[in-house]
Amino acid sequence: MDKLNVLVAYPYCTPDLMDKMKNFPQDRMRFLLDCGAFTAWQTGKKIELDDYCKFVETCNPKPWRYFSLDVIGDADKTAKNFEIMLERGFKPVPIYTPGEDKAAIDYFYTKSDVVGFGGINAFMGKKRKGYVNGIMSAAKGRKVHLLGFTNIEYIKAYKPYMCDSSSWESGARYGALRLYLGKGKFATIQKKEFKNKPNEQIINTIKRLGIDPYKMAKKESWHGGKSYSRNLCARSGVHMSVDIERHTKTKLFLALATNLAFDLLAQGFNHLYQIGVKK
Q1: What band does 279 get if pLDDT is binned at 50, 70 and 90?
Q2: Taking Cα atoms as reference points, which of 230, 250, 243 lies closest to residue 181?
């Protein structure tokens, strides 16, 4: 059964957003809870382990899975948090960070059936693809979550258990978007291209996603929270997530941080489910 895969970081789990997710059919959604360490690292705010544990314990809806509380740049503190969560009876997905002793990977797999690998984009830069090759080799066929990494060629080659990305919102941010065409293929389009008629495949894909492609030529269609471009990005992202899981079994989670982002993804999923995207 196709499902809406969403990842939300703990700092963004407001009561309103949790209510929205709670009201979505639970058998059609996987809610993956991220601890928010990267967000905390970027903003200089600290996440207390006790607060995070309490949220995991009491939040509604319950997360399908949740990550251990890692500390960016501090492997020892990250490992300690993981051990404390285990002692308290939690079953978090542990996170391996670049530079950590590789022996930790095998240890993590004795405690969890899946291990998350972080810092791929934040710290590895141009070396990230080589780093991912090393991750998959070290995992030896065991379940892996690649945090913030959704390179389609790598997903098709390695078929990781799961991964996540916020890139589905790029069209709303930069005035250009990657339209998912199906079967792991994309078309990168910019708003200026709609002044002329895009090729037939792009037009038909946009129509299939329930968006009027001819309105994309208007300037206002690329601005605002509920713009046509942002709706298109959301539906394209959901299409990608569903299609990738159908063909590779990889659960590709769409990261979000706002009520509106969830609304757009939920509407996109409902539309795709109703029209029945072909395999």
Answers
A1: very low
A2: 243
